[in-house]
Specification:
single chain, about 240 residues, mainly alpha, elongated
Length: about 240
């Protein structure tokens, strides 16, 4: 399986995705620093940060924007690795190899998941560390509500990142069913709205049960995406 994953990275030229992930991480870092220290989120009349209810701490925008970018990025990679080969017929060549179709699809999904998970974790660490470093020079506009010396911080960061990346499998399933890479990307936007957006004072982002439910649903959709691969005709 590891050889297949490495082959997928090589075949799809993962270096270009690495460069894109690095650019996104740097842009997000600049944006979060501007948000925390340059007052770009402050109300022009009061000078007070204009944040959604319950989202006044700096970790909220970090989680929101990193999750948003990562989910779109993951859906884009899944479209390139899996949906597009189905649509252009190149998947039929891969399925002609003496390897089970399910194993090929799982290796493609894991190749994307591992890459996106590592990129998201490292991006979050960069942003959290940058905000802490900035606080040594200037008081941030948003309260710092985390401690990078706490094991719980890294556990929570890892679990949230795993759930976010796994949500891409829901978008993958929809894209395969609708035979459209655009459908997968649109689905990722809808998932972002569902998991991160606020409606007044109501949000699912901080609900303790919601991440567990999302992880379970994502796993179900991942299984559904590959369970019929041995008998299902190509697009």
């Amino acid at each position: 399986m590891l050889k297949l994953i490495k082959l997928e990275w090589k075949k799809n030229k993962t270096g270009k995705y690495l460069m894109k992930a690095l650019i996104v991480a740097l842009l997000l870092c600049l944006f979060i620093l501007a948000l925390a220290y340059l007052g770009i989120a402050n109300d022009p009349d009061t000078g007070v940060p204009d944040a959604a209810p319950g989202k006044s701490a700096i970790s909220s925008p970090i989680e929101l924007f990193t999750s948003m970018c990562c989910l779109i990025f993951t859906s884009s990679m899944l479209s390139s690795f899996i949906i597009s080969p189905y649509m252009d017929g190149t998947m039929s060549l891969m399925f002609s190899y003496p390897i089970k179709r399910q194993k090929i699809l799982i290796s493609q999904m894991l190749a994307v998941w591992i890459f996106s998970f590592a990129a998201l974790v490292l991006t979050k660490l960069l942003l959290y560390a940058a905000v802490l470093a900035g606080s040594l020079l200037k008081e941030p506009d948003f309260p710092i509500d985390y401690s990078m010396t706490s094991p719980g911080f890294y556990l929570q960061l890892t679990l949230k990142s795993a759930v976010t990346v796994s949500m891409g499998f829901i978008a993958l399933f929809i894209g395969l069913k609708m035979k459209s890479a655009k459908a997968a990307l649109i689905s990722s936007f809808l998932l972002i709205i569902l998991s991160q957006a606020n409606v007044g004072d109501i949000t699912l982002a901080d609900n303790a049960l919601f991440p567990a439910l999302l992880a379970a649903v994502s796993l179900i959709f991942a299984v559904l995406s590959v369970c019929q691969a041995e008998t299902k005709d190509l697009m």
